[in-house]
Amino acid sequence: MAKARNKGKNEEQKGDNSEAVIRHQKLCLSIDMDKRRIYGYTELDIVPPENGILGLHADNLVIDSVTVDGEPTEFEVFPHYLPLENGDRWCSVSSTTSAADAAGSVYLSSLDRELVPNLLIMCRKSAKDEIEKQEVHLENGVDSSAENNQNVKKVRIDYWVEKAETGIHFDGDVLHTDNQIRRARCWFPCMDDNLQCCCYDLEFTVASNLVAVSTGTLLYQIWTEDVPARKTYVYRLSTPVSARWISLAVAPFEILPDHNISQLSHICLPADSAKLRHTVGFFHSAFSYYEDYLSASFPFASYSQVFISPEMAISSLSLGASLSIFSSQLLFDEKVIDKTIETRIKLAYALARQWFGVYITPEAPNDDWLLDGLAGFLTDIFIKRFLGNNEARYRRYKANIAVCRADDSGATALSAVASSKNLYGTQCIGFFGKIRSWKSVAILQMLEKQMGPESFRKILQQIVSRAQDVNRSLRTLSTKEFRHLANKVGNLERPFLKEFFPRWVGSCGCPVLKMGFSYNKRKNMFELAILRECTARLDSSASMTNGKPDSEKQEGDVGWPGMMSIRVHELDGMYDHPILPMTGEPWQLLEIQCHSRLAAKRFQKPKKGSKPDGSDDNGDVVANVDTRATSDSPLLWLRADPELEYLAEIHLNQPVQMWINQLERDRDVVAQAQAIATFETLPQLSFSVVNALNNFLSDSKAFWRIRIEAAFALASTASEETDWAGLNHLITFYKTRRFDANIGLPKPNDFRDFQEYFVLEAIPHAIAMVRAADQKSPREAVEFVLQLLKYNDNSGNPYSDVFWLATLVQSIGELEFGQQSIVYLSSLLKRVDRLLQFDRLMPSYNGILTISCIRSLTQIGLKLSEFVPLDRVIELINPFRTSKALWKVRVEASRSLLDLEFQGKGIDAALTLFIRYLDEEPTIRGAKSK
Prior knowledge:
eight-stranded mixed sheet; alpha+beta; disordered N terminus
């Protein structure tokens, strides 16, 4: 007779499940949207462990019955999440520190319990039955030992779950699952282990007006005889995957088959169908490109992209096998410009994860970095191919900067066993999850640089080809295997790899290089002095790959393997010198011979009528002579690691004129960004720097992202000392392109030139950042922003101006009002209020305009609380917290009100209000975002 117990159980009493193997799982569920309930059964074909006790994961599920081979059996259920039974942990709480320690201890103990199976099923028959069975087999001359060892049991579990709080989510007539860490068990009993993979048969019965989208291939649909009629969707997933990759979405979806590739389906709610068609128009190209790059067909029989309302989505992306669930905020129509790049990259990344992460999985938790990095690397290949090499290099450069700033502790040691275990899988989420992901991609790109792009591509092709081999039962990849492929296929030497992986993958910290040089005119060479440091803190520790002892780890702390290149731009050409060792002594002094010499006429007295720099109005200009090079050196500019072969933080000290040469003459976006970043840190700026930045901003052939950086650098240079040259350049630049010269007012909007649109969109924001000596905005800056907002005209423009207006409104929030500019505040607030009312009647894309208005009103209220009554600002913002508002608008309104509450009444009042908002928030996503 079946027996169910809902009580705690010590780990010593739990069955050993290490030998259990799931051969196949079937899941049959009926979904009742009105009651927010799912019910049905699952059948598992299992080879049970030797002790006969099968352990499964089943959280918050009500188990009705369990049978083994059709016969009822005993089972026990104990909850993972118990009341705080260890009250003694809280007895010693006397301060915030001890309270945090106690809470952390309780949390870690609950995570430990979560790892252990909590549904124990007796799969072995009684001893008497076993003896009788053995006697029968012996009488027939059959030895049953081999059969028993491979005895497959069919375990059926009938269960239901109602109003689940996690794992599966209801909202009206929409349901979806999420596969966050250890959440599959919250909606069906399973062996929630990444190494337990099997094929699945899935059946979902829903109301006739709903569509059930799940992992695998849709085989057929069955109409039931229920009243009212219902429909059953039958799916089959023939590729073995772990339980975490089983996903489900149910709603009155509209399905858009891809006309280019029959395997693809794009699915959304009816209100988003027009946006969907425009958003995914490019997707078949990315799909085909991945297959071509990897020389393999897509690993699953089909692929579906589902878009649900952002209020429901736990995150912007939830992955499943052959299925990705996105927030519909990614969708956009043909009038929206600003979302194109980010949306395409996110969709391409989700597709890359299907290859690396879902289909091919890490062998162990400390191998997660490798699959995440390979997916990111594949996404970067997509960016380079479809969005341009400049976009790819710029993003990689910015990601590298972020990694170097944050890679200072064991949390960023990618394959450290200790950190993977201690973080319980959470190392892949949050801020450090993003840093680890960027670091993983950077490390793989370093390897690609070492072996060459074709060799690295062959490694990826071999990994995929091996995984698709029908003779392989597991599709896992380990760091050790990848290291072997780097040696065998990539032709990298073993000594290099022996140093590379422990230092970059098993440890934390990036090199920090501080460089300076001096030129020896007599020898025509320069000396480069380098100090090498590390971003890792002295007290940080991380285990090495494969759990090597600390004695071996210390050897890797003296540096990094390989040689860094120094690129020298001289008068007669460019020369690379791969001569900077990244290991050994932290101080290095390198001597680099110059190839070119100063022109002889540089040492001659200037002729009569010639210019001070030595050039002659009537003479021919020497083609390879830079007339702005200093008379002391033939060097135009220097660069360290120009090809981003190292994940390193580099501080190069060279004269300002050389940075100007680098900005103006180096065509690499990374070189240009480095020069602009240096200008922003200079304590004093010359007019030559300001002019160089202005010339670059005005260069329509330059990459638009770098032009935007030049605009903000100009804003930072604008001051009374430079006679507001930076501000004047920004205003002049904008007016020459967007103002009517005859009437002196802005022209109607025309956004057909996308790159110019992005640059011009950033100008008002940059102008709003200009500050006078008293840290207030100049009167001209405030007047300019007001003028743009007042005369904005989008009539006749085929594209939406909502992001354009949102940027203008955000610029108002960035302004600092002084005595000369406070007179404009009333006019600006009237404009903001008018936009708020307009956006309430005709909501903008994702409420972006309302969000900007709320944010700017809050900033103004906080800055000018002495002049602007906070109660009035609160009165304006409070209506946007209603349930009718978009969730993102509600979240922004809540944040603003909390800031205002803190400013007016202090931290206690703000915390009380925060708790109230959490209780009132109807959506999970909104509560998470607070």
